[in-house]
Amino acid sequence: MKQKILLLLILVFVSLPFTSRAAEQSTMAKLMQQIEIIKFEISVFQSLISNFQLSQPISAQSYLAVDLSDNKVLLQKNQNQSYIPASITKLMTVVVALENIDPDETITLTSKMLEPEGQSPCLFLGLNISKENLLKASLIQSVNDAAEALSYFKGKDESIRQMNQKAKELGMINTVFYDANGLNSKNKTTASDLVKLLSYIQKNHPEILRITKENDFWLPDKTGNLLKFQNVNNFYPLAEFIGGKTGYLPQAKQTLASIFDVNGKQIAIVLLYSSNRQADVFSIIKQIKK
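Above: the chain sequence. Below: its structure as tokens.
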């Protein structure tokens, strides 16, 4: 009996350093994660400051700034010329999801839903996930497989049909969608059409704008570790930023469809085929203020 107790004590003693070491490693991993988040936040502010200080012509091939209170056009270039929207597509994906999927509905992720590039380790095969979390992942970090999964609630083809139908209802006559995530370069829209979408969201789905300002959304990965979804619209720290979406594809360059508070008014700003959307937005806001 004494030998058994002694053996047990030895086993407990031997295991203590490993338990402590595992805890230390977990704590260190979390600390490193926080450091990386802080470093990224600093880089966002540095980028905003440097682009605010730039003084250069607007690089976007198409842009439009509209006062949403009276639909007055403040600045524009090629507002009716078609371009690829890239991830701005997700704004329409989310509108259709909000209007056609039950709030509490969930879906189990399949390999088809996880095919698009731009995946998150928090979205994995067999995961049962809510519509709400997919909405946030799509809007905040612009996760492509999250948007893809949203399209499967009603069936991918039906969701795309609903997106194009909604575009027609909103008078977006030069817009066509071929996917839910914005990776397809066949997706086409205009700055004028995107202002119509922003106006509709402002009036009917302000929750979309609120979500796009968030930067504190976390989900667990396969191992249970919480991972942060970083907001990819780098205007989110600004008080003037009301909400919106950005996008990028090599064929589309940088795109943006967002609403800003300028002189106390809500101004929709759209950029298509921009080389520097931050500098372009600041240039447009400065011109409006003048």
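Helices lie at 2-53, 89-100, 131-140, 144-151, 156-169, 191-204, 206-213, 277-289.
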